[in-house]
UniProtKB/TrEMBL annotation:
Coiled-coil positions: none
Protein name: MORN repeat-containing protein 3
Major localization listed first in the record, in broad terms: cytoplasm
Keyword hit for Repeat: yes
Keywords: Cytoplasmic vesicle, Repeat
Signal peptide stretch: none
Length: 217
């Protein structure tokens, strides 16, 4: 009976090439077609672990944690200064699914700064905002606006404590006119006081008190 020999099955050469091309683990700098570059860890051909991404078009740099190709974990994002061309930090904190999420600090080009919680790329939760005019808001945020309970301290030390909605004073609140030594307590709606009472509050220590005290009711 004749012996039939079957040819040994050989794996296509491109399979071997493909395995070698797959990025997994720590790799040197990998350049994209558009000039972007990434140096760091990979998993199944996706950025995963610690790594640094440089965007050629904007010059922005992200250095931190990655998860399946997206910024996820702790990291910092910076952009070049338009004048000095030096890298200027924009955000340092936590990320999830390529967006700011969790606690982080953002530095705005206007010189303002936000320290607090983020959700899906927006200020949400508790946070403190330092405004360019010297005012400071500290309290609750929702969808990038003050919402809930919070305190706004103005540059002249006057302050508002109370409710907020869509970035405006809303609900029960107190406004301390410390330079005059007065306190307004009442109800606000869309940044406008609707009703309340005005009383003297620390008038003797006020820098510029009113000529006459408010009569007691």
């Amino acid at each position: 009976m004749p012996i039939v020999k079957y040819p040994t099955a050989t794996e296509p050469l491109w399979h071997e090439w493909d395995r070698k091309a797959q990025k997994c683990g720590l790799r040197h700098t990998v350049y994209a077609v558009n000039g972007d570059q990434y140096t760091g860890e990979w998993l199944h051909n996706l950025k995963h672990g610690k790594g640094t991404q440089v965007w050629k078009r904007t010059g922005a740099i992200y250095s931190g944690d990655w998860k399946f190709g997206k910024r996820d974990g702790y990291g910092s994002y910076s952009i070049p200064d338009p004048v000095t061309k030096e890298q200027k930090k924009v955000y340092t904190g936590w990320w999830k699914n390529d967006k700011k999420s969790g606690y982080g600090v953002t530095f705005y080009s206007s010189g303002e700064r936000y320290e607090g919680e983020w959700n899906n790329g927006l200020r949400s939760g508790w946070g403190r905002m330092y405004y360019r005019n010297g005012s400071i808001y500290e309290g609750q945020w929702l969808s990038d606006q003050p919402n809930g309970q919070g305190m706004l301290r103005l540059s002249n030390e006057n302050r508002y404590e109370g409710g907020w909605k869509d970035g405006k004073k809303h609900g029960p609140g107190k406004f301390f006119y410390l330079e005059k030594g007065q306190l307004f307590e009442g109800i606000w709606s869309a940044d406008i006081p609707q009703c309340g009472i005005l009383i003297d509050f620390g008038r003797d220590e006020a820098p510029t008190p009113t000529p006459y005290p408010i009569p007691k009711v």
